[in-house]
Specification:
24% of the residues lie in helices and 24% in strands. The chain is an alpha/beta fold and 370 residues long. The protein has two domains: 274 residues, Alpha/Beta hydrolase fold, catalytic domain (Rossmann fold, 3-Layer(aba) Sandwich), CATH 3.40.50; 47 residues. The two termini are 38 Å apart. It is found in: Secreted. InterPro entries: AB_hydrolase_fold, CBD, Esterase_phb, Plant_Biomass_Hydrol_Est.
């Protein structure tokens, strides 16, 4: 019996061997940060890459443990990169203030994170057109700064409780204990044009595509004040050239207000009533849907590099830049399991859910079995 139990355990470990792994030797690492990576057992043939950034006092392991992004990586075959900031930076916050970090190829944290992305793309044959970033608090501030300094790298970003790009510039530090906290206290307000110039000046002369943004904030955040949410929207509306067309109450759920810019494909914001710093859920499916990584995979068979068994490898179709304007009906004959996608613009998979789950529309582009 013991032998059977051991055999079952070994088989299970071969079926699902993915875990968070530390990586060294990924680049020149100008600011001495660390890298961890999650590569699912079933990897897309040209996988997207999603970077997830922790807040002050955290690290890559903590960010990995506090969200469900890896469950979606397992299903859709994309790679997750979890950087950790230099512990010598106050409270293990990201450097969101120095000229090095606020300048393209300036030698700061932004450049180090991009080196991790480049390593991942090269090692796993990743899709350089499908690189994304999400962050919380200090990581959200870094998300905005990465969108400003490396718009050529990041196709879309999602900051949770952040501040505009370059908001901390000249403060001498970018953590809650810094003597100058005028940025998180919302004492720095600028016009949309001025904020846009701050972002553009991070990469002088750049004229290519700009990073799409989905911005989240708690309306009762008393550490990074909710006024910063409006300053972020001002900045990226100017950079992306879109105007606010309205607000939608109780979207995506009760207590949230959606701030819609243009058609919502370039910029959208969500302000959560009654929620403070760190209390806004990551809404993983909505973030990843906005990014465009929740594509229906086809499968092919290959030999896993983690074990000698044969596993399926996901393959995905190229990104369509989300310009679809009509809804494609799903497959009514199949059933999707709980947490799986069941509808939305462009969805061609199962539209029914296995009981007792029911298909719930979260936004025009994504419905999920809940």
């Amino acid at each position: 019996m013991l032998g059977i139990i051991k055999a079952i355990a070994l088989t299970a470990s071969l079926v699902h061997g993915a875990s968070l792994q530390s990586v060294t030797g990924w680049g020149s690492n100008p600011s001495n940060i660390q890298m961890s990576i999650y590569v699912p057992d079933r990897l897309a043939s040209k996988p997207p890459v999603v970077v997830a950034l922790h807040g002050c006092g955290g690290n890559g392991q903590q960010m990995y443990s506090s969200s469900r992004f890896q469950t979606y990586a397992d299903q859709y075959g994309f790679i997750l990169v979890y950087p950790s900031s230099n512990s010598n930076q106050g409270m293990a916050c990201w450097d969101n203030h120095s000229a090095k970090s606020l300048t393209h190829d300036g030698g700061g944290d932004t450049q180090g994170i991009v080196q991790q992305v480049q390593y991942t793309l090269n090692k796993y044959n990743g899709d350089a057109n499908r690189v994304y970033v999400i962050g919380f608090s200090s990581g959200a501030m870094m998300t905005n700064n990465l969108a400003a300094t490396y718009p050529d790298v990041f196709e879309a970003g999602a900051p949770f409780a952040g501040v505009p790009a370059a908001c901390w510039a000249g403060a001498g530090g970018s953590n809650p204990l810094n003597t100058n906290t005028s940025c998180p206290n919302a004492q720095i307000t600028k016009s949309a044009q001025d904020w846009g110039n701050y972002a553009r000046n991070a990469y002088p002369g750049y004229t290519g595509r700009r990073t799409r943004m989905q911005i989240w904030h708690g309306a009762t955040d008393n550490l990074v004040l909710p006024q910063l949410f409006q300053e972020e929207l001002k900045q990226w509306s100017n950079v992306l050239g879109v105007s606010q067309v309205g607000t939608n109450s109780n979207n995506p759920e009760s207590g949230y207000t959606q701030y819609l810019y243009g058609d919502g494909k370039q910029l959208v914001g969500y302000l959560a009533a009654g929620l403070g710093h760190g209390a806004v859920p990551y809404h993983e499916s909505m973030v990843l849907s906005f990014f465009g990584v929740l594509t229906t995979p086809s499968t092919s068979t290959t030999t896993s590099t983690r074990a000698t068994t044969t596993t399926s490898v996901l393959t995905t179709t190229p990104r369509t830049t989300m310009v679809i304007t009509t809804t494609t009906p799903g497959n009514p004959g199949a059933q999707q399991s709980k947490w799986g996608q069941c509808g939305g613009i462009g969805w061609t998979g199962a539209s029914a859910c296995s009981p007792p789950a029911a298909c719930s529309t979260l936004n025009p582009y994504y419905a999920q079995c809940l």
